[in-house]
Amino acid sequence: MSRNIKRPLKYKTKDGKDDLKESLENAETTKLIPKDIKAVEDRLNGTFEASRDLVLRKIALGNGMSIPVLIAFIDGIIDKNIINNDIIRPLTQGDISVAFDDPCFKAYLLDYLKKKLIVNYQLEEIKDFETGIDGMLAGYVMVYVEGLDIALKVSAQGGDKRDVEEPLTESVVRGPREGFTESIVTNISLIRRKVKNPNLRFDSMTIGKQTKTEVVVCYIKGIANQEIIDEVKNRLNKIDANSILESCNIEEYIEDNRFSLFQTIGNSEKPDIVSAKILEGRVAILCGGTPFVLTVPHIFVEVLQDGQDYYSRWVYSLLVRSVRLMAFWITTMIPAAYVALICFHQDVLPFKLLLTMTASREGIPFSAVTEALLMIFTFELLREAGVRMPRPIGQAISIVGALVIGDAAVRAGLVSIPMVVVIAITAISSFIVPQIAGGLLIIRLALLIAANVAGVFGIVIGSLFLFIHMASLKSFNVPYLSPLTPLEGEDLKDGLIRYPIWAILSKPKSFERKT
Amino acid sequence: MTEEKISSYQLGMIIVSFFIGSALVMNPAGMAKQDAWLAYLLGWLGGFVLLWGITKIAELHPNKSLVGILIDCFGGFFGRLIALLYAWKFMHLGAEVIRTYSNYATTVTYPETPLLFFAVAYTVVVVYALKVGIEVVGRISEVITPFVGLIVILTFLASIPSMKTSNFLPILPKGIMPLLQPAFVTMILPFGEFLLFLLVLPNLHHQKSFKRVSYIAYIAAGCILFIIVSRNLLVLGADMSARDIFPSHIVFRLIPTIDVAPLLDINMITTGVVKTCICLYAAVKVIIEVFQLKNYRILILPVAAFVVALSMLVRDSVIEQLEITIQYWPFYALPFQVLIPLVILLISLFSRKSTKYKSA
Fold first, then answer.
1. Are B142 and A487 an interchain contact pair (Cβ–Cβ within 8 Å)?
2. Which of A282, B194, B235, B355 is deepest in the core (most CB within 10 A)?
């Protein structure tokens, strides 16, 4: 990706920075829009250097065609119908009876254009030339009129975009199937349709010097904690980035702890999940150009939560969170625990199990930890290959993985069968908590090495480190491990277990808490 | 720097893990043979007196830590001097705790690993926890301590088959006098150390709840320790539990059909980390308050390094540690844990009365 575009855009250099004296003289005048249409055209051409997608359409008002009008826009990001029907048609075929040519009418020209001619719900007067260019780049149409130093900015965003589809990452058995798209307007409408509350706010801002990405902060006033809203806006305003291409870029800038293995900002592709989080008092950050919407504060139990929990019978949901928590522990601990048992604490194992394990390890040339590292590495290779491969070939990976590496490695005497089982369980469990799977890999390896050095002592020391780290994390001043610690009894109903939905408070208390 | 606050529940859990901390592995009441449980109970009840005294001191000096109280009572110079002695005492206590755990690890599970490895590995966790703040110590103990209690109860239930009630007999064959020394040691050794919490007290969110939380936590910790003491006695018998250095470990090994010895490791490391954290925190707090520094975090690493070195020096062997802990430690700790608090209490009671008299 062209993340680091060092070359500044042309219209910035055209400002004449090489000649300081001239630029000082022209500073005021270059900012404004020239009254002369020809000059406007020249400057636009100079700015974009006749870029393929710049469209300059010249028409004229009045019977004698005495008032030239320049319509400028960037092709491809506008809706052609809007420009043809709402702007060009009324301007060219508009009220013929009006005496445009009359010099007395000049004073009313702008007003007349705004109020009677241009058919569009969104219209703005622009005095600054650069603002006009920014508008064009964002999909607006600029209308320049001869003799006026004010241009009109007309909304005509359009062009190709994806329909609302079911997201691939969060497919559901039961529940709404729609997902966010790359268009921020669509995304806002998807949330608005779910939460019909006038207090639902969408505060817009632009981030990224080159990409000028639109970012919208969404929350419900009165439900969301004002401190968190202010903090979010504050951090977003501080971002000094060249490009924001995905919400992940924003995430990295506004995270509480930038070096943590755990993400303290959540993301989702589904409007129902984001709406639920907003209703709980969280703040959503929508970023133009990506279907992934960020939600803050993001706490650990959210990793264990899933939209599905709320759309299935509570009896099942009651326990499924605990299963996920268990998966979290299994995927971090099991390889380490296995190595610790094999190397240090053989006496803990039941005698028969010890016999089988020793028998299966007979003839294996590697130590337990080497074996484990080998298998974890192989599994990561397979997973990475599975993700990178085009889907039709992806099937081959699973065959290679399951048969060749699993079965054949055991028969070839490279790894023992218990280790294959251990790694398989680890792998399956890691799929249950996909959001933090990347961080868990590192934790798994660290614990594995700790276990190899000092057995259970190493594991305990390692997991204490992990635990202290997690307890020290904060997401927008909300402790990452709340409501577990600091303990918040009411919130636990929707924490590691899910109570029936009528028994859960709609808004967690942890977001208000200080200690 | 924002001030760190811990909730009353967290403080309670810290207190419980603090008391369970070292007593989980060592047990001074064992000297009383088959009457260890009685000696323990006596010591525990005796500890109530100390607890009462300390909560009373805290009540008389609201919003002050130990250093402030000492300065109030003994004046600027002597108050600070005594405070520094306390800093030494807390560091020494931390070193003892670290040594106990390192000894346990090298004696029981890892005979070939050097002591220093465990001491350092263990202290690194403590340093990390304190670096991120006392808040986090509160949070980890809040989650871990209930599990420790649960494991103690579960192991008690699991070792019921191997218990013999005859291990309690004969009760008091030589009268109550032989119980007094072990009871005294118990009173001083885990329970008298409560004084340390006068330094954690300023971090408590609801200052008023200190007294209530202390009593509840004291009772809870007392019950858990009583379960441990009587379980060890019931399973091992008077002779074995008095002779063993780490009786809890043997009991865990004796649980039928399943070996849960690593659970004891887990328990004691987690509670021990909390205990050491509090010791170091108290020592560091005293130092920064005496010298009026701002940030306690910069002192953690040097103090921890000193404590690790100290833990290597304090004793020569496990046996020696046990002997000294039981024979001499109580008399060493007596002035810090009983005499000075007593003087503080008397002075502050007296001065309060006199101010009352004056104002009246």
1. yes
2. A282
CA distance A137 to A9: 12
The Cβ-side half-sphere exposure at A259, using a 13 Å CA radius, reads 2
Q: Do A484 and B143 touch (CB under 8 A)?
A: yes
* Residue B335 placed within a domain: yes
Q: Domain of B254: which CATH number?
A: 1.20.1740.10
Q: Give the total number of structural domains in chain B.
A: 1
Q: Which residues pair with A224 in a beta bridge?
A: A221
Count Cβ atoms within 10 A of the Cβ of residue B285 and give its class: 0-12 exposed, 13-18 middle, 19 or more buried.
buried
Q: Which tokens belong to B350? A: 């007296």
Q: Which pLDDT tens digit goes with each residue over A393-415?
A: 777 777 777 777 778 888 888 88
Q: Token digits for A61? A: 């008002």
Give me the torsion for CA of B96, B100, B103, B105, rounded to 10°: -140
According to DSSP, residue A220 is labeled E
Which one of A457, A461, A474, A482 makes the best mutation probe of the B interface by having the most chain B beta carbons within 10 Å? A457
The answer to whether A347 contacts B269, with C-beta atoms less than 8 Å apart, is no
Query: Whole-angstrom Cα distance, residue A129 to residue B188?
Result: 81
Contact A457 B129 (CB under 8 A): no
Q: What is the bridge-based pairing of β-strands A140-145 and A123-126?
A: unpaired
User: Is B358 inside any structural domain?
Assistant: no
Model pLDDT, residue A97: 64
Of A455, A467, A487, the CB nearest to B109: A455
All residues at 6 or more sequence positions from A471 whose CB lies less than 8 Å from its CB, including other chains: A479, A480, A481, A485, B132, B136, B139, B140, B143
Domain membership flag for residue B359: no
**Residue B58 CA to chain centroid, in angstroms?**
19
* pLDDT tens per residue, range B108-154: 888 888 999 999 999 999 999 999 989 899 999 999 999 999 999 99
- Give the strand order in the sheet containing A200-207: A200-207, A213-220, A283-287, A293-296, A266-268
Report if residue B2 sits inside a domain.
no
pTM of the model: 0.87
Residue B51 corresponds to which tokens in the numbers above?
């607890």
Q: Do residues A314 and A280 touch, judged by C-beta distance below 8 A?
A: no
- 3-state secondary structure at position A514: coil
Amino acid sitting at position A411:
R
| CB nearest to A471's CB, from B113, B139, B261 | B139
> Cβ of B121 and A454 within 8 Å?
yes
Angle B262-B268-B273 from CA coordinates, rounded to 5°: 130
**Amino acid at residue number B137:** V
Residues of B in contact with A457 (CB under 8 A): 105, 109-110, 118, 121, 265, 269
The DSSP H or E segment spanning A84 is: none
**A391 backbone dihedrals φ, ψ, rounded to 5°:** -55, -40
ipTM score of complex: 0.92
Asked if B143 and A347 come within 8 Å (Cβ–Cβ), the reply is no
Q: Which long-range contacts (CB under 8 A, 24 or more apart) does A5-9 make?
A: A5/A210, A5/A242, A5/A243, A9/A210
**With contact defined as beta carbons under 8 Å apart, do A294 and A251 qualify?**
yes
For residue B153, give its domain range.
Answer: 8-353
Beta strands in A16-167, from DSSP E residues, in sequence order: 54-61, 67-74, 123-126, 140-145, 151-155
Looking at residue A41, the DSSP 8-state letter turns out to be: H
Residue A50, CB half-sphere, CA atoms under 13 Å: how many?
0
Phi/psi of residue B159, each to 5°? -95, 5
- Beta strand segments in A404-514, E: 474-475, 478-479
Token pair recorded at residue A455: 């057995």
Q: Which amino acid is residue B283, in one-letter code?
A: A
Rounded-to-integer distance, Cα A152 and Cα B72, Å: 75
